[in-house]
Amino acid sequence: MKKEIDNKLNLKNIKPTAMRQLVLQVLTEQKTAISLPELEQKFEKADKATLYRTLKTFQEHQLIHSIEDGSGSLRYALCEDFCTCEPEHLHVHFLCNKCGKTYCMKDLPVPQPDLPNGFEFSSANFVVKGICSNCKK
Amino acid sequence: MKKEIDNKLNLKNIKPTAMRQLVLQVLTEQKTAISLPELEQKFEKADKATLYRTLKTFQEHQLIHSIEDGSGSLRYALCEDFCTCEPEHLHVHFLCNKCGKTYCMKDLPVPQPDLPNGFEFSSANFVVKGICSNCKK
DNA sequence: ATAGTTCGTGCAACCGAGTTGCAAACTTAC
DNA sequence: GTAAGTTTGCAACTCGGTTGCACGAACTAT
After folding, report:
1. B30-34, B41-45, B70-74: the lowest-pLDDT one
2. Residue B51 and residue A103: Cα distance in Å, rounded?
3. Which residue, A68, A113, B31, B45, could crosslink B70 as a Cys pair with Cβ 3.0–4.6 Å?
4. CATH topology of domain A2-136
5. pLDDT tens-digit readout, B81-132
6. What residues does each domain of chain B span?
7. CB contact under 8 A, A118 and B136
8. Is B125's Cβ below 8 Å from some Cβ in A?
9. If residue B6 lies in a helix (H) or strand (E), which one and from where to where?
10. How long is the CA A31 to C1' D11 vector, in angstroms?
11. Which nucleotides of D are covered by protein (CB under 7 A)?
């Protein structure tokens, strides 16, 4: 729904351009996190730099979050509607060794480990690797 | 001590060449994990490819482990003497946002989260980011 | 010791992800 | 409509990682 897309953009104070609508559309349809190169392939005819800057804008406005899953490229996924990307909202990600997809485990919060004295927590990246339920079958 | 270096290599079934001794020496002196580009700089005159392959060899023989800390390059650190890099031996890593160093939190095991049905755990990468005790002072 | 094989090293080249500069196209405010 | 600001597209570049190839050292069997 085009309305919803624009809504989301407005909600996060992002000017809705054609490009941004398209990218957000794709992101919304994705069940797993997507990388810049993967996003590039979704459009037969879009510029890498533009997509790159679009993702950057989205991230700055906390519409999406990025995941370092060690696959060689950053992956991006939609944030929950009212996510502010605070440490408390961090969740675990899962990278399937077989299909290579990265899942957001939205129900699995990242535990905050007891750091040694003097170490200050500000954020975390927790990626679990293994076989996803889809590949397991 | 040259003896100890050779010992470690032998223990892991790695033929001790001059190059490997030097690299292991550097790795042993490091208190924090080191990346390939950083390692390159430690030697005024060594080939990237050779260092790359040396690290690869070390990793295959479980002398070192690699950490995806999201700094843009993989970092490497020595394993504990009898580490076999099993999930149970995984520990948390800490990336300082200020000095950029990556610490092995050897005493902080990576928790194994309750994955949804059908997802199979095989390994994990848990990087905490913040300010290290050294930069905090 | 010699010839043949394997293994390690160094150089060059390449790949792919990410990033930047710049100019053209488009928006917005006046 | 014009000026100022924003977004886009293209090209170029950086940098980490990786590979092919050839030379040389080390190891093996005769």
Report:
1. B41-45
2. 34
3. A68
4. Arc Repressor Mutant, subunit A (1.10.10)
5. 767 667 667 999 999 999 999 999 999 999 999 999 999 999 999 999 999 9
6. 2-136
7. yes
8. yes
9. helix B2-11
10. 34
11. 6-12, 15-20
